């Protein structure tokens, strides 16, 4: 079944899902171990899942990983982060990562937040 994305954010999320599906078919054991590891890392613990998503978004911005920026922006929203919480985390990342982190934040993150909010309506 073909599905047409409604915006750029959804298209990136679908691209990632397709890519990870292909990788899983080709490398099932590796994908299984990777997925188990990441699921464990993002479980509720001393840090909440919300805090972990904010950390992951900051790291994604710092490393300039556009797919992860979109994925973890969605993760932040899914975990109940407000836009203000996301923007504050962006500020901390920009303080460490400088202009490169800020440029991704004020473009890609903001676009993703806006488009993900539209999808929920």
From TrEMBL:
<dbReference type="GO" id="GO:0051920">
    <property type="term" value="F:peroxiredoxin activity"/>
</dbReference>
<dbReference type="Pfam" id="PF02627">
    <property type="entry name" value="CMD"/>
</dbReference>
<protein>
    <submittedName>
        <fullName>Carboxymuconolactone decarboxylase family protein</fullName>
    </submittedName>
</protein>
<dbReference type="InterPro" id="IPR029032">
    <property type="entry name" value="AhpD-like"/>
</dbReference>
<feature type="domain" description="Carboxymuconolactone decarboxylase-like">
    <location>
        <begin position="28"/>
        <end position="111"/>
    </location>
</feature>
<dbReference type="InterPro" id="IPR004675">
    <property type="entry name" value="AhpD_core"/>
</dbReference>
<dbReference type="InterPro" id="IPR003779">
    <property type="entry name" value="CMD-like"/>
</dbReference>
């Amino acid at each position: 079944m073909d599905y047409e994305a409604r915006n750029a954010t959804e298209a990136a999320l679908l691209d990632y899902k397709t890519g990870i599906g292909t990788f899983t078919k080709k490398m099932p054991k590796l994908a299984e171990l990777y997925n188990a590891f990441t699921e464990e890392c993002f479980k509720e613990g001393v840090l909440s899942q919300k805090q972990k998503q904010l950390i992951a978004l900051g790291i994604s911005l710092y490393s300039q990983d556009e797919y992860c920026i979109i994925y973890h922006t969605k993760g932040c929203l899914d975990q109940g982060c407000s836009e203000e919480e996301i923007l504050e985390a962006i500020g901390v990342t920009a303080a460490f990562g400088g202009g490169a982190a800020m440029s991704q934040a004020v473009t890609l993150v903001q676009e993703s937040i806006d488009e993900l909010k539209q999808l929920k309506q």
